[in-house]
Amino acid sequence: MKQPLRKDLEPVAASFTVKELVEPHFDPNWHFHPHYQLFLVEEGTGTRFIGDSIKPFVPGDLVFLGPNLPHLWRSDQAYFSKQSKLITKGIVVYFTGDFLGTAFFEQQEMAPLRQLLGHARQGLEWTGPTRNRTAAALRHLTTQPITFDRILSLLTLLNDLSHATDYQYLTSAGYTNTVKPTETDRMQLVHDYVLGHFPDDLSLDKVADLAGMTSPAFCRYFKARANKTFSEFVSEVRIGHACKLLMNGKLSITQISFESGFRTLSNFNRQFKDITGQTPSTYVKTYRQF
């Protein structure tokens, strides 16, 4: 039986948790939990799903998530091969909103941090200079013993993030998590199927059947929980894969369009711009600036 979408972290004596992750691939389960999560990818590539946001991830990916925001860092398929020698690395920090007391962040001095925590409920990512400073601070945090100084380090890091301006929101403004912890993990089945078959002609009837629903019922179910239609979801997965291929710079745009599941270049170009706001060539130029 698969694990439920609701993920409960192991209890610890310390006020917050910081972990270095070294695994063949990141956790492949789409899940959520009642903790804030600050996560840095140090090694590995794949597709990141957060709420209704779908984007590729590479080393340096830095994200801050609020409580109960569904997420999944899905490593590329090569990481799941039995013959693979690839590994993923990351640093993650978990803490609850009351980890320093129920009213700590309500104090006047905590206003910037309180605003940061509020923004995190929509998901945040940093792509500018803040990302490098935060990566260094997280690495330092992993070396510290569980003492008062470690709490100061985390608060200093959060304070730095609260004053940074080089961030962007991840989910749409109206996104809310409507998945119930007691619900069967149909969405996990959908994610797994689409990620394994997106280069092909996907059948809505097949996916609905996997979810144990009729096609019309599945379409209503999916939109209510993903805040987008199933076809929009598939397009974003395909464009996310195309973005990774563009970053690699090994294939032409025409080859990338077919590798990503598009049958015509014109359709690929149109959907790429609709989703990213840029043409494929402009996207490459923007990416190489970082």
UniProtKB/TrEMBL annotation:
Pfam families: Cupin_2 (PF07883), HTH_18 (PF12833). GO terms for molecular function: DNA-binding transcription factor activity; sequence-specific DNA binding. Gene3D superfamilies: Homeodomain-like, Jelly Rolls. The keyword Transcription applies. Residues 188-286 form the HTH araC/xylS-type domain. Keywords: DNA-binding, Transcription, Transcription regulation. It comes from the Bacteria. PANTHER family: ARAC-FAMILY TRANSCRIPTIONAL REGULATOR (PTHR43280), TRANSCRIPTIONAL REGULATOR MTLR (PTHR43280:SF27). This is AraC family transcriptional regulator. The lineage of its organism: Bacteria, Pseudomonadati, Bacteroidota, Cytophagia, Cytophagales.
